[in-house]
Design goal:
8-stranded mixed sheet; 527 residues; globular; 19 helices; single chain
Length: 527
Amino acid sequence: MDELTYLSNLVAKSRLSRRDFLGRSAALGVSVAMAGSLLSTAVRAEGPVRGGTFKVGMQGGASTDSLDPGLATNQVSAMVNHLWGETLVWLAPDGSPIPVLAEEWVAAPDAKTWTFKIRKGVQFHDGRTLTPQDVAATIERHTDAKSKSGALGILKDIDTIKVDGDTVVFTLKESNADMPFLMTDYHLVIQPDGGAGAPEAAIGTGPYKLASSEAGVRYNATRFENYWETGKVGFAEQVEIVVINDATARIAALQSGQVHMINRIEPKTVPLLKNMRKVTIKNVAGRGFYPFNMFCDTAPFDNKDLRLALKFAMDRETMLKRILFGYGSIGNDTPINKTYPLFEDIEQRNYDPDKAAFHFKKSGHTGSILLRTSEVAFPGAVDAAVLYQESAKKGGIDIEVKREPGDGYWSNVWNTQPFATSYWGGRPTQDQMYSTGYLSTADWNDTRFKNVSFDTMLITARGELDEAKRRGMYQDMAVMMRDEGGLIVPMFNDFIDGISENVAGWVDNPAGELMNGDAPLRCWLNA
């Protein structure tokens, strides 16, 4: 064991490759699991290594992407925002809210008034100093419907925003015990003057300055020397994000060393990558899910029986097995699973061609139903749509699958077309997930589910401080969404990423892929 410890320390000091370390460990009769554990301990003990260019290959970007944080709709945009911008609060891997640009916060007893103390001595990339006024202006911009911010739905309950010395005071229309979690939303990057006039300028307080950007192609960022928290994040000299929407090309880029990590590895390719040298697979169960969205206010999906028919026509078990290969869990037509702290189970909806046929006939609809999909919607989305087409036939339902181009899918198809595949990464709390995507007034209500009773329960649960009562309310909301909504959730996905042997500092984060977008900030290169 002394020799193994010595060898692991050499790896931590970049004087021995991981591959050679694992080979010599095997020669000593040590299991891969034990060797990996010892190596991780040694790397953490040695500490972060500064320098180099961190390269990330990602699926999800498009030429229509904007640098305005409020308009971020995919994981590429969100990660770019992470590089140059920061929010008031950070969601840690264990799900707890951690102070960032807010040093601390305190709530009134009724959870209607929240006071956030803003950190001093923080500099924006253009030389200006962060002020409480910048914070207030940023949040105010995202509460304006004209901003089209993806955070609008979770901020609608804010009544007033006032600056008081070095604090910002938020007064809410209703009590909200989750207010700090709302401030972790990746759209709410704090900008000078709130981003007024030029929210796409990418001026923030983050550890990197955006040097160049070509939407849907490539982004380059360089370390910001005046960053306020040096030594904790931002170890590479530069970060390069390359959009590689093709799954095979992404894997090839990782294997050849062109990039240090990739997202969205298709489950069917995991066995292949596990046999590749210099590559490590990272997978973690989380809140992400792969939905099939129907617009509840658009024919023919405005008919509840048709929606039920399409839900019963979904063979979730087969899809989980053949699309995710076990790297996920079964869905139940709600966006919430057991990873949420106030989750309560409800009766599982199963594949039932007879019920699908019954409701389809009752709906009165005739003819085929058009489903739009794309390889960028989620890994295996096109194959999933074809599987759905096959299972629906047994219920007498003809689904026409239309494969759309990846570029522009998130602006031309998602939240625009009435029946399409999509992807959600989940949110820190049930209230935030529901408020972002399923509140009647939410801009990102991509199923057009508009139910007054649901809205009332959501607002009531938000201010309920009795956890047991709140849990029961969320259970009732889940049943309502499953039975009346336009959301079909066949499966929740594991986040499956691939990293080079040179990457250190990885920490599993169930909130999202690539450490919830933090990987290039919190990881470093050993060589």
